[in-house]
Amino acid sequence: QRNDEEEIILNIKFEKSPAKIMFEVIDFGLSFNYSTYKEPKLQDLIDEKKKGSLGMMLVRKIMDKIEFESDDAQNICRLSKKISPMSAA
Predict the structure, then answer these.
(1) How does DSSP classify residue 6?
(2) Could you tell me the pTM of the whole model?
(3) Dist. CA 53–CA 33, nearest whole Å
(4) How far apart are CA 20 and CA 26, in angstroms?
(5) Dist. CA 68–CA 59, nearest whole Å
(6) Contact assessment for residue 13 and residue 27, using Cβ atoms and an 8 Å cutoff
(7) pLDDT at 85 (0 to 100)
(8) How far apart are CA 78 and CA 9, in angstroms?
(9) CA distance 2 to 22
């Protein structure tokens, strides 16, 4: 069940070597068991005219690394993506 009053923390970190960006999302709700996640078949979603269930599939295609960590107090999702180093203008 969704609680709109729930606090969510977003940390964004940039690393120079190797160049990457990391998003860390922290929440205090029910944990997500990534190890049991099964990616839905896109055709099944189209056939069922389902409007959801694409978020994790898109994240997996965009990000290089996804990590989940949970304990009794909080859930942490870390998303990492390699980026091209910025060149001086």
Answers:
(1) -
(2) 0.70
(3) 15
(4) 20
(5) 13
(6) no
(7) 66
(8) 12
(9) 26
pLDDT of 38-76, one tens digit each?
777 777 777 777 766 677 888 888 999 999 999 888 999
Quick check: 14 and 21 in contact, CB under 8 A?
yes
Strand, helix or coil for residue 46: helix
Strand order in the sheet with 65-70: 8-15, 20-27, 75-82, 65-70
The yes-or-no verdict on residue 89 having pLDDT over 60 is no
Angle in degrees, CA 14, 39, 7, rounded to 5:
50
Which residues, at least 6 apart from 59, have a Cβ–Cβ distance to it below 8 Å? 66, 79
Task: Report the share of the chain in percent with pLDDT over 70.
Answer: 84
**Residue 22: is its pLDDT beyond 70?**
yes
Q: Which amino acid is at 1?
A: Q
